[in-house]
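Methods — Computational structure assignment.
A single polypeptide chain was analysed. Its primary sequence is given first, followed by the predicted tertiary structure written as structure tokens.
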Amino acid sequence: MSHPFTLTLSCQERPGIVHAVSSFLFEHGCDIVEHQQFDDAVRGQLFLRTEFVCSQDTGTDRLSATFQTVADEFGMTYQVSGDQPPRVLVMVSKLGHCLNDLIFRWRAGNLGAELVAVVSNHEDLRPMAEAARLPFHHVPVTPATKQQAEERLLELVDELRADLVVLARYMQVLSDETCAALHGRAINIHHSFLPGFKGAKPYHQAFDRGVKLVGATAHYVTPDLDEGPIIEQEVIRIDHTFDPRALATVGQDAEALALSRAVRWHSERRVLLNGHSTVVFR
């Protein structure tokens, strides 16, 4: 019986890294299924993602601990993962297009992740979540209760053992402390390319400026608002015939596409942080 695993790592570029990895896997009875690497010549870094199967009865903890010797030799930051899909907590406000798309892909088995619950500061999307048999948690947010609301959010992350938090048009700005607590495991969708039209009614601003492209950006959440490492961007070409309502419609399509791809690639361990940017092995 074969046990599937994924090794991801980054380190300073130097000769012998791939040989060390492949030798380690061979010595431990593992067979490489997929291998991708990227040499960042500008930063002098190497990024690697290797899928492999192991005929031996072993686990991620044991493999990770055994690989530590190789990692120490090359100064690697690494992770060994099994094939268990990440548990995802989705946060929403009133707009349901991204949540609906995530639910559809999850049910179809194409998301690469397991949705475990929906959290919202409004009640509007409770029927959609409960129709999908997802627990719905209403956590109201006001200026006076913002801290308590975020504390409740982090409690739910722990209670549900959520590996990833997805802000699927959640229209609240998370505090620096919450962003830090969710570092590398929270993805947001922004309604334009970044940087783009900020503030209220972005599609009306786009209409007024006569834009010819509508885009969306999926990125990791950081304390710097809408400036986190970008995972994916989607674009749809439009023309002068698109009024604000039509712009919003195609914009929502772009948002749903960019977000679902980002969630899937993250869940498949295809996204590696590279400073303020990312390396995405598709």
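Note: The longest strand covers residues 30-40.
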